[in-house]
Amino acid sequence: MTAPKEDVTQLAASADAATARLAEVRASIARSIFGLEEVVEQALCVLLSGGHGLLVGAPGLAKTRLVHTLAVVTGLDDKRVQFTPDLMPADILGSEVLDEDASGKRSFRFIPGPVFTRLLMADEINRASPRTQAALLQAMQEGFVTVAGVRHDLPKPFHVLATQNPIEQEGTYPLPEAQLDRFTMQIDVPYPSREAERAILIATTGAAEDSAVPVLDAQELAGLQTLVRAMPVGEQTLNAILDLLERARPDGSADAEVAEAVAWGPGPRAGQALMLAVRARALLQGRLAPSTEDVAALAGPVLKHRMALTFAARADGLNVDRLIARLAAKAA
Fold first, then answer.
1. Phi, psi dihedral angles at 47 (to 5 degrees)
2. What value does the mean pLDDT take over residues 211-238?
3. % of the chain at pLDDT higher than 70
4. 253: pLDDT strictly greater than 80
5. Contact present, 280 and 49 (Cβ < 8 Å)
6. Residue 108 CB: number of other CB atoms within 10 A?
7. Helix, strand, or coil here: 127?
8. Is the pLDDT of residue 36 over 80?
9. CB atoms within 10 A of CB 208
10. Helices 235-247 and 292-303, packing angle to 10 deg
11. Cβ atoms 122, 83 nearer than 8 A
């Protein structure tokens, strides 16, 4: 069905206003984060999609700083949990304590854990045990936690931005596939360019340091998330997403290399994530509808943690990123 002209006009006006606000967001972030424009864009796509992000990079690349900066500019209250092998589920979710009032009557009282926030930073998430990772899994997927059989709803919007160190893997617990699939995107944080690092050194080693300022609030961010879901997706873009997902799966793939090298591929949740992410990217760039170029640009961050290569493919030196890039090039 074709939307009424007045609805399209209203949507376009809302998109224009949102793009202007998001430009202010990016300008505020740029006061504190240097040379990570693509990383910032992908992180904003995650938040606008209403999802969760996994930031992967070596130590000292401003992953923690970026998460806190995003919390400041979006007006979301944030908390940070440093994941360690001895971290227990109750350390994240909260626990019940036994209270006694003046009359001697005893009752249990729930003390919320750090997960009760709008933006949770799970620092070095792969250092926690699978039991603790599973405790966070329900919160990420369901938007509530259950303690002692009682449901406790999390605030909305709720986002998890987790960090992971690709080195120093001793004493870590690889994230299970089910939990990896809960992350909308895996965002790789690279080393800065020479010019960006020069700006970092000058800006952060002086007597005063600039910092981001609030631009949005939780209610406005929720409105932007609603707008993203209302944006139209053309048939060509939709088919590009479907073709990409089909080619990335080993069962029935028309690509011989994928059929031989991929152990398991992306499921429908990957398509949902990509549909939302390409809309968010279009909005960030001032466009009303996403294009196949958006699909190609975000294919890697959305798919790389949802695919696994066979042992033989890894032994031959095949790389997931290169494989996705080749598949995505056909979608553009």
1. -65, -40
2. 94
3. 95
4. no
5. yes
6. 11
7. helix
8. yes
9. 6
10. 30
11. yes
pLDDT at 1 over 50: no
Determine contact, residues 293/329, Cβ cutoff 8 Å.
Answer: no
Where are the strands (E) in 72-132, listed by range? 78-82, 94-100, 106-112, 119-123
Contact 71, 212 (CB under 8 A): no
Distance CA 113, CA 52 (A): 19
pLDDT digit string, tens, across residues 144-184: 998 888 899 999 999 999 998 876 666 678 787 777 899 99
Q: How far apart are CA 1 and CA 314, in angstroms?
A: 47
Over residues 224-249, the mean pLDDT reads 94
**Span between the terminal Cα atoms of the chain, in Å:** 26
Instruction: Look up the pTM and report it.
Output: 0.91
Single-letter amino acid code for the residue at 29: I
| Domains defined for the chain, CATH in brackets | 233-332 (1.10.8.80)
Residue-by-residue DSSP string for 206-226? SSS---------HHHHHHHHH
**What is the share, in percent, of the chain residues with pLDDT greater than 90?**
61
- pLDDT score for 228: 96
Find how far residue 292's CA is from the centre of its chain: 21
- Residue 214, pLDDT score: 93
**C-alpha pair distances (Å), 278 with each of 102, 183, 317:** 58, 15, 30
Instruction: Give me the residue label for tokens 């854990």.
Output: 113
Grouping H, G, I as helix, E, B as strand and the rest as coil, residue 319 is coil
Token duo for residue 53: 């992000």
pLDDT at 146: 87
Question: What count of other Cβ atoms lies within 10 Å of the Cβ of residue 103?
Answer: 5
Question: Rounded CA gap, 185 and 170, in Å?
Answer: 25
As to burial, measured by CB atoms within 10 angstroms (0-12 exposed, 13-18 middle, 19+ buried), residue 178 is exposed
Separation of alpha carbons 327 and 270, rounded Å: 15
SS3 204: helix
Place of tokens 């994230």: 175
Q: Could you read off the pLDDT of 195-221 as tens digits, one per residue?
A: 999 999 998 888 888 889 999 999 999
